[in-house]
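Private note to self, pasted from the team thread so I don't lose it. Backbone tokens:
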């Protein structure tokens, strides 16, 4: 049985009583909620070199340099860089042999008087794990869900103490560190939708796995990272942008996945109210699509992500098993058009009423939420390989009582058939491609992009026998994982995930 973690007061006191730790606190926006804990519990003189808050924008700019937005990642990084550099400049010679310096910072927008602002913030710590050590850093983005300003400030202070305690005492166990961030809180009060580890203490940490942990542990409903593996904060990527999403298992990424996205992208960017240069395309994988027998294989997860990265895709991991929940999540960040592309088989499932029994309004409520913000579905045809017939929007079979609803959505332009697809790819099905890889049938390479086939062969993904040239290829994060890594166990949701073919 895991040892019980200390409460917030005991955590703050443990930091204060650790003679190695000494540093500064800089907090903008919601008051000095984090440092207050360390003053309150006693022993702060042994920990706090400086505490400051720069509320005025001109004062903040004078200290940290000009910034277009004051609650953003760049402002947080500027704060951490300057405060830590000052600590080292002023104190390293006098006490550097026995002191591990740190700088904590946050920049936060808590609930304003009228309740009209977005309540969120950036928080981070740059620190030395040991005296004279190279720097390490953790930054995270939080969304505050309490409806009262005082409660938001309280929650912010607790998260900050958890972050400091975790950085100092759990840096060798990043999984436990992440899990501890909501100690003495709940996901009803705080959401952490982005975290990034860097520096010497975290040299073996893959931030994509840490992003997955956020979603798996319920600290966030979604996490995002770029093709180069950089962890992204969704609001900064999606803010006021038209968004196109393809949901899939991508196990592996096939020609159908690529063709579907390309066809949908061409259709989407030609919409009258879409700025083609602003479109953000996402490959979304739900937690259900990552599970095998209730567990998540991290090697398998990173294999899929590496293949999407090779195709230049931004990846979204989410627990939004129902499309209307995904739509609501995306609409949180943009008022521009949202498009979702899927196969005809998934569209059939979308019209199956058994998936909506938990909603008082059933399928009508689901569709009301899904199409609320001018969302559009782009449908890729399904080939019947026995008859050669195609299932499209025009001949899709839905329950008789739903035909009128279906036709209404088609006539309204909410559901649109993709026409500019490559017929040569219609016979590809990802489950069959995976089977061919695992049995060693070389014909699987015909069904995936050439670059994807090369990576699968070189790195031995999905049970593929590695080629002789694999030794000359740089090892990916997926290939570098230890074989004994513990699997993630996820409680299966009540609803089936609706996925593309």
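Design output:
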């Amino acid at each position: 049985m895991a040892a019980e973690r200390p409460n917030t007061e005991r955590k703050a006191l443990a930091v204060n009583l650790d003679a190695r730790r000494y540093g500064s606190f800089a907090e903008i926006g919601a008051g000095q909620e984090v440092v207050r804990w360390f003053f309150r519990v006693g022993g702060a003189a042994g920990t706090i070199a400086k505490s400051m808050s720069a509320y005025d924008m001109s004062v903040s700019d004078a200290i940290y340099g000009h910034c277009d937005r004051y609650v953003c990642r760049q402002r947080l990084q500027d704060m951490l860089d300057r405060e830590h550099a000052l600590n080292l400049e002023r104190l390293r010679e006098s006490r550097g042999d026995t002191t591990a310096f740190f700088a904590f910072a946050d920049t936060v927008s808590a609930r304003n008087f009228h309740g009209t602002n977005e309540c969120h913030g950036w928080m981070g710590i740059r620190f030395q794990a040991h005296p004279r050590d190279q720097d390490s850093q953790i930054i995270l983005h939080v969304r505050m869900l309490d409806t009262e300003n005082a409660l938001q400030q309280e929650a912010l202070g607790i998260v900050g103490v958890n972050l400091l305690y975790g950085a100092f005492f759990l840096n060798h166990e990043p999984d436990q560190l992440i899990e501890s961030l909501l100690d003495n809180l709940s996901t009803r009060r705080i959401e952490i939708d982005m975290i990034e580890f860097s520096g010497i203490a975290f040299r073996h940490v893959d931030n994509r796995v840490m992003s997955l942990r956020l979603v798996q542990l319920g600290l966030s409903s979604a996490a995002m990272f770029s093709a180069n593996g950089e962890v992204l904060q969704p609001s900064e990527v999606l803010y006021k942008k038209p968004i196109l999403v393809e949901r899939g298992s991508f196990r592996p990424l096939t020609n159908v996945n690529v063709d579907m996205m390309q066809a949908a992208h061409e259709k989407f960017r030609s919409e009258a109210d879409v700025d083609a240069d602003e479109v953000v395309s996402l490959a979304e994988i739900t937690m259900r699509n990552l599970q095998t027998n209730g567990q998540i294989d991290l090697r398998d997860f990173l294999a899929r992500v590496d293949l999407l990265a090779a195709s230049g895709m931004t990846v979204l991991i989410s627990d939004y098993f129902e499309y209307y929940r995904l739509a609501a999540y995306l609409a949180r960040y943009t008022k521009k058009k949202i498009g979702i592309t899927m196969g005809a088989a998934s569209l059939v499932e979308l019209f199956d009423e058994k998936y909506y029994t938990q909603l008082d309004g059933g399928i009508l409520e689901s569709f009301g939420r899904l199409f609320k913000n001018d969302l559009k579905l782009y449908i890729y045809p399904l080939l019947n390989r026995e008859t050669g017939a195609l299932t499209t929007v025009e001949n899709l079979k839905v329950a008789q009582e739903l035909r009128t609803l279906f036709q209404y959505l088609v006539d309204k332009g909410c559901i649109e058939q993709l026409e500019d697809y490559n017929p040569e790819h219609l016979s590809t099905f990802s489950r069959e491609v995976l089977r061919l890889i695992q049995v060693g049938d070389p014909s699987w390479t015909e069904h995936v992009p050439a670059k994807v086939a090369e990576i699968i062969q070189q790195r031995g993904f999905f049970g593929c026998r590695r080629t002789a040239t694999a030794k000359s290829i740089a090892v990916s994060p997926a290939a570098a994982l230890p074989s004994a890594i513990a699997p993630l166990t996820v409680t299966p949701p009540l609803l089936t995930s609706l996925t593309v073919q």
